Fold these 2 entries.
Entry 1:
Amino acid sequence: MKVLFINEYLPQEMLGIMWLSRAIKDAGHTVQALFIPDKGWLDKVREYDPDVVCYSTTTGMHLYFAEISRQVKQVAPKSLAVFGGPHPTFTPEFVEKDGVDAVCRGEGEVAIVELLDRMEKGEDYYDTLNFWFKHPATGEIVRNPQRPMVNDLDALGFPDREVVYDAGAIYRNTDRKVFVTQRGCPMPCTFCFHHAWKKKVYNVKNTEYVRKRSVSHVIDEINAVRAKYPLKFVHFLDDIFNLRGDWLEEFCERYPKEVGLPFDVILMANMTTEKQIKMLRKAGCVYARIAFEAASDYVRNAVFKKHTTRQQLYDASRWIKESGIRLGSLNMLGGPGGTIEDEFETVQMNIDCEVDHPLVSIMQPYPEFDINDMAKDMGYAVAAYDDFPTKFNRTSSIQFDNKHEIENLHKLFPMVVRYPFLLPFSRRAIKWKWAAKPFLIAYMLFSEYMVSEQAKLYASAQGLSGPRYWPLVDFVRRVSVKGVLRTYEALFARYLERFLAPKHQQMAISLQMGDERVVSHMD
């Protein structure tokens, strides 16, 4: 069977596609990936003639990919359109949309292989676990239950990077590549998919839901990737890298000896100790992010259910700074039940902790998340799922009375944290509705500068130096190139479409690779 994954170009490799491709290839089937925008993408679909086309989508992008699927159906009418990811998992009735034949809920490695095997043998596959199908003859929706989750992550093998790297050379050629060491999270954070995945999709306990790869398996994968592709910096995607103390100790002991590449991580403050930070620094960690989310004890713990104290946040931040590791923070504005003063309290906490790289999101009450029910129970109006923003960090889906103030503060947040003298100004400025676009531009420019700082950090960790890596020089380069590309795109769209589109797309994506605005766990 021939399988095709279609996705947009994203600022980092898609590990989900890689894991699925590994399972599919190991079962003897053929896999390719296709990333859009691509001028000749439909011709490529027609030429490959896939039996199954797979899409992964979040809420807000689901209608876009349904339209892509309808276009695919015009050139590959016999292909089965399978949708996975957060939106289909939590709203499986999405299968009723035109262009959607099936949705896979939850983990897909075992499920997709069973589906392909049955299709290849000409067997009835409509009772395949994890799937909801729309029967082509009757239109009936077939709802199947979940199969158990994968228990032994090592048994899955290494993610198949070839499928992504062959489709997008930009991912293959970057020196900074992503890795993950675990699945699941024990925390009950109301704004995150994990609690809903665990309780509402699988109905399991943490002992079954949270799984960790062995240190040997992770190290072997990193070395295998380095032997075949460029790799100078390791970006770990785990929501809580310090989830298990024994695992972390083994990792920090072996990693510098067997790998020796600089890396970055996300840590959970209530699990972090000074000893861990010292071990991570010695192992080669140069950047660590802590999830502050909100300074208000009520918002952070009663609404978001982070189960962390202020002291834990301050201590973890201090240990990171004292160790010489760059400190990043993950923050969230627009939590239901909070006030604008609560939001400014979060700004002040970042200032007090001297955060180097403040990252901030606008909270979105996605389907089946507890925060969705909480927002509605508090009397807030929440946008319909088909009306959710495609760019989650631009606007809120909750209709707050002071919505524009929250959105303006979001844009000013990183600048105020880095330059606290702007704090009095920001209290007045967030009320200016007319300033939304200027603040957005300022936010994008300052975020670009922080990315340039990040690039300097990575370069230094790799022993690279010179004017090319100075933050200001890199910032000017990034802004200049992006400005030129967008100007050409606006003025000469047809010309770009015909002659420059592929090069234009690759340049734009290359400038976003590793951008902290899009690779943090919240993004």
Entry 2:
Amino acid sequence: MEFKNFREIEKATSIHRGELFRLGTALLFIVGIMLYASQSLASGPQGMLLIIAAMIGGYMAMNIGANDVANNVGPAVGSHAITMTGAIIIAIIFEAGGALIAGGDVVSTIKKGVIDPAMIADSDTFIWLMMAALLAAAIWLNIATVAGAPVSTTHSIVGGVLGAGIAAGGWSIANWPTMGKIAASWVISPVMGGLIAAGFLYLIKRTIVYRTDMVEAAKRVVPYLVSVMTWAFATYLILKGLKRLWKFSFLEASGIGFIAAIIVFFAVRSVIATSADKLENTRASINTLFVVPLVFAAALLSFAHGANDVANAVGPLAAIYDAVINGGVASKAAIPMWVMMVGAIGIALGLALYGPKLIRTVGSEITELDQMRAFCIAMAAAITVIIASQLGLPVSSTHIAVGGVFGIGFLREYLEANWERTLDEIRDHHDGEDSDAVDEFLDRYEAASMHDKNIMLQALKARSASANLYKKERKKLLRYYRKELVKRSILLKIAAAWLITVPVAGVMAALIYFMIRGMLVA
């Protein structure tokens, strides 16, 4: 009896072991930063501030890994192109590689220019401001991760800098036109990502899925899709991921991407043709042709993300380090290698420990994804950033990817409702006929190509024009048949989190700034 009780206790406590392990590992990382900083950095009060800032920077980096990286690998995992473990390994390698190889050696001290550094009184005020901004952004990202809401880390740190800046220098310190652009990106990013992802999915459906011989259609179309993807990712990587190593104009980057796309087209055409010949004429089989491109997409998105967003973790820390060492407020700050390592290791560790939750949210909890749909989301992520950067629009990679997922889901809802409405119209046109004749026509209609479907419908309507539905009746049918393939509860939760990210991070940063100043001045 006692042994049975022990087994029940063991079973109950085992549930929490994983959480304790993750928490303990994260604390060991923070303690390791503290020990290194205390032995290697400046001593005295300023040195203590730098040690605390380094610990906060590590905490921020882990939260970036836990929340933001899911956007790069979530669709690939949700579509079963790669496993969760494989996605985490790929993301860790390429996130850290992007941060260390292309993360840059200099960073802007005031992220996105949201406040005027000339209005900051002295280096102490600047240090307190950046510490408050970094901690507030990290706390908000932690809360969002626990809530299962993917949010923008860039917007989080922007909100933190804005709130702490206003607390330190008043309302006039803020660059409100820049903040207006950032607020506009809350709508621009997801809408643009959703439209582009939905557009690519509809193209794939019309050129491959809706064809009678899907295998032959895939042999013709997939090489072109992979080439477009090559152009998009090569251009994206040159413009965003490698911009701190080499400076290229859009035309130069686009030209290099175009050359890479041509090479890839001729390289993969025969491989895809050989692979397609072994496939059955089903959508599930055709999906397998998109697995390898998705793996490359996840890797390249992770590399570009590591190169760009590591600055969200180490930028404020590098600014604090520069202010402590040089005793002033500079618009640009060098990034020491130890600071970059804090960011790279922290992002990788946060992803490994806490990333799976958000990966599942993005990959499978919003809408059902397969490889074709995930491929379209990856395409949207790269192309949207390219378009936005050329238009000077500040967009969030998080908003783009999640918007792409929603765009795919809403397109599926529309197509499903449209299909059901079409079937209903066909039955109406056959009103009074034998049920076997109706079923026979429906079987032929479902097996026909898009072109043949249109011909069959036109002939059917011409034969029985009186059965045509009026516009108002069609709208009623569309509402009746609409199936919710996108979870509205998650949509509302994510939208709410996006809207409050900047205000919440700003308010927390202002409160933390006043707390720090009160403790140190007193």
